[in-house]
Design goal:
The chain is α/β, with parallel strands linked by helices. The protein has 14 helices and 18 strands. It has an 8-stranded parallel sheet with strand order 7-6-5-4-3-2-1-8. One of its GO terms (biological process) is chorismate biosynthetic process.
Length: about 425
């Protein structure tokens, strides 16, 4: 079996030649199909023939009629099984081009979903069924719906998708048997919540035997605003980047993935919540390893904390913030007989001197009162977030010390060893 065809949707801000440039970029990165939608682009905003010369073109009717030029250039024409009034929609499309789709307004049982597809369809039509996911456990129902639809329509015609803030790992599992995998190109825009990044999906399949599916035992990382994370680049594939809101149901989500995943990295802001959820004796954890029917938790951040404190080389160190990273720093400082001053936001009154560690993620604004006086401040984030934090330290009078890569590599090495022991 071959991997699902990767579909990228053209963002609404890209028009004319910019749209063609986007399509070429996605093709180079591994996209298989480009989608354009009538709710995102006016008929004359794009050149469908030019786009179709780069990638097969999927044109989707969403509330507004499909222009004839779009249909003519299309590889497939997506039409809704049901119209806005809840009645049967028009499935008119040229021979061999129909993709019949249904976008449910609520989660459905498998029986409810199948009842929608009793309608006669051309033998060469593709079918796509999409449901909102309000709870991670719905993946079991979606997998059963996918299986039953494949029985009805055949294994090469069906796509079943979940949509929502907890849908990403479900989409990763469903993709093993889907014909199409709708993915996000990256940046700040995605066509639907829960889409995986194109680069992550391509990486999963790069170098794999194209006649087989990846091993079902997956890895992943939990966090908020983690599009910059390098974990999917350095760890064994398949590896899912599970980016959910700070108040998302991470506990339920991690439990629902026990059958399909062998381990997880955990980053801000979930290190303390998942420590409590898994019954860890630690205040914060950053690694989960499957042990049969349960998760065992670890904190390999201590390896990173050790590197940072060694590089700072100071006896007295202040720490900005008291989250999961600080827990690891506190553990290592105790081992080293080193003094730490843990400073919460309300504790900061005067300019800080000496050596310190900034643990706040860059999405969290620093207090207005924060100032440095010739202080060396370690940055334990990396990439663009690390650079933004470093600039903020400089702006406030400090000297940033970029140690995010050292922290990351040290803790990741130990994570890899632990995941190899998953059962």
């Amino acid at each position: 079996m071959t991997p699902a065809r990767r579909v990228v949707t053209l963002p609404p801000t890209l028009l004319g030649s910019d749209a063609v440039h986007f399509a070429r970029g996605c093709q180079r990165r591994g996209a298989d199909v480009l989608e354009i939608r009538t709710d995102l682009h006016a008929p004359d905003a794009v050149d469908p023939a030019a786009l179709a010369s780069v990638l097969p073109l999927l044109v989707s009717e969403r509330g507004k009629p499909l222009p004839a030029a779009w249909v003519s250039a299309a590889w497939r024409v997506d039409r809704d099984l049901m119209d806005a009034t809840g009645h049967q929609g028009s499935l008119d499309a040229p021979s061999g081009k129909l993709l019949a789709s249904h976008h449910a307004e609520r989660p459905l049982s498998t029986a409810e979903a199948l009842s929608l597809w009793e309608r006669d369809l051309p033998a060469d039509a593709l079918v796509k069924h999409v449901e909102p996911m309000t709870h991670p456990d719905q993946v079991r129902t979606l997998l059963e719906t996918q299986r039953r639809m494949m029985d009805r329509f055949g294994p090469t015609r069906v796509t079943v998708l979940g949509m929502g803030s907890v849908a990403l790992p479900a989409r990763a599992v469903l993709a093993r048997n889907n014909l199409l995998d709708y993915v996000a190109a990256g940046g700040s825009w995605a066509a639907a919540p829960g889409q995986r990044l194109l680069d992550d999906v391509v990486r999963e399949w790069r170098g794999a035997d194209r006649t087989t599916l990846p091993a079902p035992l997956r890895l992943g990382i939990f966090g908020t605003s983690i599009t910059h994370s390098r974990s999917p680049r350095i760890h064994r594939q398949p590896f899912d980047r599970i980016d959910i809101p700070e108040d998302g149901p991470v506990e339920a989500l991690v439990d629902s993935l026990l059958p399909s995943h062998g381990g997880f990295a955990v980053t801000s802001p979930f290190k303390m919540r998942l420590a409590k959820h898994t019954g860890s004796p630690l205040d914060a954890i950053n690694t989960l390893v499957r042990r049969g029917d349960r998760w065992e938790s670890f904190n390999t951040d201590t390896e990173g904390a050790r590197k940072v404190l060694e590089r700072l080389g100071a006896v007295d160190v202040f720490v900005l913030g008291d989250g999961g990273a600080t827990s690891a720093l506190r553990t290592v400082a105790t081992e080293r007989g080193q003094a730490l001053r843990i400073l919460r936001r309300a504790d900061i009154q005067a300019p800080l001197t000496g050596a310190g560690v900034w643990t706040w993620p860059d999405r969290v604004a620093a207090p207005d009162s924060l100032r440095f006086e010739r202080a060396r401040v370690a940055v334990i984030a990396y990439g663009a977030p690390g650079r933004r934090i470093a600039a903020e330290i400089s702006r406030r009078g400090g000297t940033p010390v970029l140690l995010g890569a050292a922290w990351f590599v040290a803790q990741a090495r130990r994570q890899r060893e632990l995941w190899e022991t998953a059962t």
